C-alpha cells in the first residue's frame, strides 16, 4: 500500500501545535524530528561515547511529518494544512518558514523507521521518559521511569513546555494530592503526578484520539492504572475541587481555564501552567491576578514560560 508523507518544516516552539493540526486533519500517524530531541538526548547521556553521524538527527528547528493513505485528496488537504499553520501566527507562535512538501512512501518504509529517533531521556532530576520497547533501567533508586508508546506520534516529554510542567510537578507535589490534568495529550503529566505521590489523578482532553492515546500509555505504567481519562472541553461541567490543576496548552486556551480553575482549587491549591511563549507571559500573569490567584513562581526554558499560581492564604 502506498502512503503520502506530508512534511512541515518549522520551529521547535510550533511542534505541538502543528502536530495537533495534523491530528485534526485525520493523519494516520505523525512523526516529529526535533533538533531539541537530539540535544536533550545528548545532555542526558553525557558519558556516552558516540559520533553525531551515528544518530539520525536534524541540527535546527523541527520537521513534522504526517501520513495519509492513497485514498486521501492530498491537494485539498495541503491547502487546508497551509491555512491552519499560518493561523498559528495569531497565537503568537513563530512558525518559521512553515514550508510544506509531500512524498510517496511504501507502508514498510515508515511503519517502524521512526523508532530510531526515540530514546530514553532524563527530563528532570528524578524523572526519565523511555519508549515502551526500550529495556532501559533506572540508574539510581530515586529515578522514576515513565514508559510511553507514542505509536506514530513521538517526541512526547522532550518539548520545553512539557518539561516545565514536569519540573513544576516535581517541585510542588508532596504526596496524597488530587490532580486534574487538562489537555492531557499523551498522558505523561498524569503519569508523572502519580510518580510524584498524587493520590488521585483525572485527565481530560477535548480530542478523542488524545484520550485513547493517554489511556494506552496509562496501561503501560502500573502506577497509572487508576488514572481516569475522558473527553472534556477544559474544565466545563466539572464540579469537584482538587489540590492541583496542571495544563500544558496554548496561552489563549489558558486564559479561559484560569477562572475555571480558581473555582475548582482546594484551599492552598496550585494551578500549574505551561505552553506560554514569552510575549504572552504578561497576559497570563494579568489573568491570574484578575482572578484573585497569587503567582507563586515563574519557570523559564528558552522562550517558553511556566507559571505556578496558588490560592494559598497569606500568613
Automatic annotation (TrEMBL):
It is found in: Cytoplasm. GO terms for cellular component: cytoplasm; ribosome. Keywords: Cytoplasm, Methyltransferase, Ribonucleoprotein, Ribosomal protein, S-adenosyl-L-methionine, Transferase. It catalyses: L-lysyl-[protein] + 3 S-adenosyl-L-methionine = N(6),N(6),N(6)-trimethyl-L-lysyl-[protein] + 3 S-adenosyl-L-homocysteine + 3 H(+). GO terms for molecular function: protein-lysine N-methyltransferase activity. It comes from the Bacteria. It holds the Pfam family PrmA. The keyword Transferase applies. CDD domains: AdoMet_MTases. Methylates ribosomal protein L11. This is Ribosomal protein L11 methyltransferase. It comes from Pediococcus stilesii. The gene is prmA.
Amino acid at each position: 500500500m502506498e502512503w503520502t508523507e506530508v512534511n512541515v518544516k518549522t520551529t521547535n516552539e510550533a511542534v505541538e501545535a502543528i502536530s495537533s493540526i495534523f491530528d485534526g486533519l485525520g493523519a494516520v500517524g505523525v512523526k516529529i524530528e526535533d533538533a531539541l530531541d537530539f540535544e536533550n538526548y545528548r545532555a542526558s547521556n553525557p558519558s556516552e561515547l558516540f559520533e553525531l553521524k551515528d544518530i539520525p538527527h536534524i541540527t535546527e528547528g523541527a520537521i513534522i511529518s504526517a501520513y495519509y493513505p492513497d485514498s486521501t485528496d492530498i491537494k485539498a488537504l495541503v491547502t487546508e494544512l497551509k491555512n491552519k499553520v499560518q493561523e498559528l501566527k495569531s497565537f503568537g507562535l513563530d512558525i518559521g518558514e512553515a514550508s510544506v512538501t509531500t512524498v510517496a512512501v511504501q507502508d514498510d518504509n515508515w511503519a517502524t523507521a521512526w523508532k530510531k529517533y526515540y530514546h530514553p531521556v532524563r527530563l528532570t532530576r528524578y524523572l526519565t521518559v523511555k519508549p515502551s520497547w526500550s529495556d532501559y533501567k533506572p540508574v539510581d533508586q530515586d529515578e522514576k521511569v515513565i514508559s510511553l508508546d507514542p505509536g506514530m506520534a513521538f517526541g512526547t516529554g522532550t518539548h520545553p513546555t512539557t518539561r516545565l510542567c514536569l519540573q513544576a510537578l516535581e517541585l510542588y507535589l508532596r504526596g496524597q494530592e488530587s490532580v486534574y490534568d487538562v489537555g492531557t495529550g499523551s498522558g505523561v503529566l498524569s503519569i508523572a503526578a502519580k510518580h510524584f505521590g498524587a493520590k488521585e489523578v483525572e485527565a481530560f482532553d477535548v480530542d478523542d484520539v488524545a484520550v485513547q492515546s493517554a489511556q494506552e500509555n496509562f496501561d503501560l505504567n502500573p502506577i497509572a492504572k487508576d488514572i481516569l481519562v475522558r473527553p472534556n472541553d477544559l474544565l466545563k461541567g466539572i464540579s469537584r475541587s482538587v489540590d492541583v490543576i496542571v495544563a500544558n496548552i496554548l496561552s489563549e486556551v489558558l486564559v479561559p481555564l484560569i477562572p475555571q480553575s480558581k473555582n475548582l482549587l482546594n484551599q492552598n491549591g496550585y494551578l500549574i501552567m505551561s505552553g506560554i511563549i514569552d510575549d504572552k507571559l504578561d497576559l497570563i500573569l494579568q489573568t491570574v491576578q484578575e482572578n484573585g490567584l497569587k503567582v507563586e513562581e515563574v519557570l523559564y526554558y528558552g522562550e517558553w514560560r511556566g507559571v505556578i499560581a496558588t490560592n494559598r492564604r497569606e500568613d
